[in-house]
Amino acid sequence: MTQAEIKLCSLLLQEHFGEIVEKIGTYLIRTGTQPLRMIVNDTGLLLDQVKKALCVLIQHNLVTYQLQKRGFVEYEAQCKRVLRILRYPRYIYSAKTLYNDTGELIVEELLLNGKMTMSAVVRKVADRLTETMEDGKTMDYTDVSNTFVRLADTHFVQRCPLIPETPETPDAPPPPAPMLVINEKDMYVVPRLNLIGKGKRRRSCDEEENGEHKAKKQKQDGESSEPPPDDGIYWQVNIDRFHQHFRDQGIVSAVANRMDQTSSEIVRTMLRMSEVTTSSSAPYTQPLSSNEIFRSLPAGYNIVKQVLDQYLSLLADDPLEFVGKSGDSGGGMYTVSILCGFGSRCARIFRLLLRKKHLEQKQVEDFAMIPAKEAKDMLYKMLSENFVSLQEIPKTPDHAPSRTFYLYTVNILSSARMLLHRCYKSVANLIERRQYETKENKRLLEKSQRVEAILASMQATGAEDAQLQEIEEMITVPERQQLENLKRNVNKIDASENQVDETIFVLESFIESTMKKP
Question: Where in this protein does the record put region Disordered (predicted)?
Fold first, then answer.
């Protein structure tokens, strides 16, 4: 665990969960597995605070626990899972792209709450969607339930592990910590719920005052009602499935750039056919026959079977091996392969070393067609930054420079790790910059929020335009310009975070796939 990763985890925990949770999370990241007593002693927090913070972290899958043989429970932070908080906006946007606003809000609610029952998610999302609709229109629970089922069918959401049902023995004491289990077959099975109803809007202040007694009565009735039929069946976002989707998008884009749109559409179809049957960590998709691929192509894509076979052969023969041929049955069996700062001249040298593996400085100058002095400076610059390495091959045992070959080469795995480390540092710097911008303009932001609250209140009571304009003028023109600049800067920082995270995803995927190669 590098210092850059620890710092980024700390900033993410503080920004999303507050100081106490951040203190506990960072402590566990730095020290590793710890029991409750040590966490309380070393952090100086109250026992109740530590327990609540651990509950929050466990609820969001950021900390796991394990019962030791001696009977005590140890807690361990999941640093990689904390870093995934950075990718939450991308998960939510992907859900919106695939399943519209309903899918977006389902994924957002699950990410915000960590784990929820399906019935709770459906009601909350229906209420939120109803709030955005015109007066008189509501969102039906059935529509939200259908989208939830589609998300589960495509494995974007999954069930959480449960406490197994065991016969109760009154004499035996309960275990210090529950053991959670899940049957792999049941991970995506949606319970049959008869959710009948529509989303509700928030009531205005007057309605709340008039209906206060009624609301209390409803609350009492609700407390005495039976638990929902899916009580105890909790769901969470399947992050690995989203990563599989991002990886598939990258593969399709790479095929389109290297070949053409038809090739990319064929690969997209193959990935879509095997998205549920192929593990997110598998190096290849499940084998698919040419006949199956042909039947699954989009309806508007009018290509004959013979042309499809030609495209598949072309993809299989390509040196980058996007598609591999694994058999001849069914017209041919094919799989999709998943393993796949210095200026343009340095990039040219880097690509050259990747292709040629080992080159002397003179060879680099000749192949890259770069003057000797410039090539030497660029090689030394990349060497000092660990992008390239220098290998000595002596002709004689004395290692005399005049009788030694000096070959430049690229350790691609080491370069990827170094770039990943730099990306983590960049995101941490962006978060700190956003916090600084917000802190520097804190007074102005608070004033703007107060004015907006007053305006909303007056609009609700039917105030005249002149009165509203008078309130708006409480914020001067220079202050408005300052607010616009702040908004523009924060938006740039947010966009930069998302762009860096895309690079982080590519680097992490490459490192993980490279480490899995035999």
Answer: 199-233
